[in-house]
Design a protein that fits this description.
Layout: E1 2-6, H1 14-22, E2 31-37, H2 48-60, E3 70-76, H3 84-98, E4 105-110, E5 117-123, H4 138-152, H5 163-166, H6 172-181, H7 186-192, H8 194-203, H9 207-215, E6 219-224, E7 227-232, E8 238-240, H10 250-257, H11 288-299, H12 303-308, H13 312-319, H14 324-336, H15 341-348, H16 351-355
Antiparallel strand pairs: 1-3, 2-4, 3-5, 4-5, 6-7, 7-8
């Protein structure tokens, strides 16, 4: 088991997080189960709308707290899916350890990534005292619960701190995005170029050198809060820098280059050698025509098209009714997702390999 506290961008918006946890476009594609704890509205998915209203009303009664009033926890399981009763017990143990035992929360389990995982949205505002609670040293507390639950339910053991091991893998958020849209996430794009970016870091002698090197990939390094983030030049996409590699942490960067210096404005006008442009994660030798048609509709001013086709996956689902190729791409992709992770990694590298696949759709 591995646990993680997710730093949220949109503060004090419990409804958006809860609705994301409950989202399920297709049965079995994302949501596995959902339950609510501590709400007078009820305990099931059907009660979610009323529970959100109740929880946000509770949060609004605390006008003193300036920090985020919601704590987002993710618990990922390596090779197993615990029974529903075990999952509820595991969540209760996390709530006790973090001091949220008497707090309202929405819990959801997702099955759309390589690892079965559980999300918990805790209301940090106590429903009776209205005091805001932020757990101190929460990583150590969560880690202790992971080890205890692994023993109790005979789950796969994750020894020691998972932070370094998880750096090599895309975040759960980016996995969710790619599983939902079938489009490459920004996180995945940065990791795809991680080797070159680390090379730039090692060869740079100043912040100016580093910013110039990152600009060739249409990337900016910016200060946010107490850390650094990597964003696109237009700032529409961004991720925590240290989540990609420890070398990109603020401490590591400032140790080498001194106190952080923001990039010069002139870099915004430079032409990048490579940039983040959404592309399909589906693999099919003839999908380029369909993808270009999808991109053309996204760029058009047709508001109806934008509403219908929110992403590549939804476009294929709509086109599949009349276009056999769209259906073929969908079937092909879903078959590939059933392959072992190692084999899938090979297929994801050169597209020619995918063309030699034995699948016949």
């Amino acid at each position: 088991m591995i646990s993680k506290c997710v730093e949220r961008r949109s503060k004090d918006n419990f409804s958006r997080l809860a609705e994301y946890l409950a989202a399920a476009k297709e049965v079995g594609e994302k949501l596995d189960d959902l339950w609510i704890v501590g709400s007078n509205a009820g305990t099931s998915k059907e009660d979610l709308d009323l529970a959100i209203i109740e929880i946000e009303a509770t949060q609004a009664l605390n006008v003193r707290a300036k920090s985020d009033k919601t704590y987002h926890l993710i618990v990922s399981f390596r090779n197993e899916k615990p029974a529903p009763e075990a999952l509820r017990d595991i969540e209760e143990n996390f709530a006790k350890a973090l001091g949220f035992e008497d707090h309202q929360r929405v819990v959801a389990t997702h099955i759309n990534t390589d690892n079965f995982h559980m999300h918990v949205a805790y209301n940090k505002i106590h429903p009776k005292t209205l005091n805001s609670h932020t757990p101190s040293w929460d990583f150590k507390k969560r880690d202790r619960v992971c080890r205890d639950m692994e023993k109790k339910y005979n789950l796969s053991l994750d020894k020691g701190s998972p932070k370094n091991k998880e750096l090599e893998k895309p975040s759960t958020k980016s996995k969710d995005y790619e599983a939902t849209t079938w489009e490459q996430s920004f996180d995945s794009y940065v990791r795809e170029n991680k080797k070159d970016l680390k090379d730039i870091f090692e060869k740079s002698n100043s912040w100016k050198d580093l910013h110039k090197g990152f600009a060739t990939y249409d990337l900016l390094i910016k200060k946010r809060g107490n850390g650094l983030v990597i964003t696109t030049n237009d700032r529409k996409s961004g991720i925590k820098a240290s989540s990609i590699d420890r070398a990109f942490s603020k401490a590591s960067m400032e140790k080498k280059f001194g106190i952080f210096e923001p990039p010069e404005k002139s870099l915004n006008k430079s032409k990048p050698v490579k940039k983040y442009i959404k592309k399909p994660i589906t693999l099919h030798p003839k999908q380029s025509a369909a993808w270009n048609r999808y991109i053309g509709k996204k760029r058009s001013k047709d508001s109806l098209a934008l509403m219908v086709y929110k992403n590549w996956r939804e476009f294929l689902s709509a086109e599949a009714l009349n276009d056999p190729l769209a259906m073929t791409i969908m079937v092909y992709h879903k078959q590939l997702m059933k392959l072992p992770e190692k084999m899938l990694g090979v297929l994801n590298k050169p597209s020619k390999v995918a063309q030699k696949s034995s699948f016949k759709c």
